[in-house]
Specification:
Strand order of the largest sheet: 1-2-3-6-7
CATH architecture: Alpha-Beta Complex
CATH topology: Peptide Deformylase
Structural class: alpha+beta
CATH superfamily: Peptide deformylase
Order of helices and strands: HHEEEEEEEHHEH
Low-confidence stretches: 7-19
Shape: globular
Distance between the termini: 20 Å
Bound molecules: zinc ion
Number of strands: 8
Number of domains: 1
Number of helices: 5
Helix content: 10-25%
Largest sheet: 5 strands, antiparallel
Strand content: 25-35%
């Protein structure tokens, strides 16, 4: 299991706005050109702002509200290189192993080993659809946490898949672009009927 990040502190100590309410943001959907753009590097100076910290809180709130396993900034209309991911008792992914909350600012991902795994993915920006993709089974995620502290963590299984999916969003790539066989693109009902194999 990767080490748990300290994401509990919403704002740096001493800030008076700790009680600020989080907000659920509108998720951009496929067809919105922002999902096809490359997001921009985030500088340390910006990370330290209250605006950015509130944005991270809102991303978390939005992901949880939508039962997403992860969400990237362009999915709420911001071209910034940050994504978050978390799975705990997620009804959209009942058979997937959980992982703690990660905030990944300016993330980089490197494959660990050469093994690939095929699996079904969904996306909050492509609601109601699942598709089969191939991803690296194990990756090294290198990023800054929400307070700008660098970390590196090896991810495998579903966490590795989600990290690769979210990083693609920061480069304007959607999971359907990575599908080798588009005939496997399915609506959720058909996915459950024809493709879903209970673990
Ligand atoms: Zn997505």
């Amino acid at each position: 299991m990767p080490p748990k990040q300290d994401n509990t502190n919403t704002l740096p100590q001493g800030d008076k706005n700790l009680t600020k309410k989080m907000a659920v943001l509108t998720v951009t959907k496929m067809g919105n050109p922002i999902l096809r753009k490359v997001s921009k590097h985030i500088f340390q100076k910006e990370i330290e702002t209250e605006k950015f910290q509130t944005f991270v809180d809102d991303l978390i709130e939005t992901m949880r509200d939508e039962d997403g396993a992860g969400i990237a900034a362009p999915q709420v209309g911001e071209l910034k290189r940050v994504f978050i991911m978390e799975v705990s008792d997620n009804p959209r992914y009942p058979d997937k192993e959980g992982f703690p909350l990660f905030v990944a600012v300016n993330p980089e991902i490197k494959p660990v080993g050469e093994k690939k795994v095929a699996g079904w993915e969904g996306c909050l920006s492509i609601p109601g659809i699942r598709g089969k993709t191939e991803r690296c089974e194990k990756v090294m995620l290198k990023a800054l946490d929400r307070l700008g502290k660098p970390y590196e963590v090896e991810l495998s299984g579903f966490a590795a898949v989600v990290a690769q999916h979210e990083l693609d969003h920061l480069n304007g790539v959607l999971f359907i672009d990575t599908m080798e066989d588009l005939s496997l693109l399915s609506f959720e009902e058909e996915f459950e009927k024809y493709h879903y194999v209970k673990a």
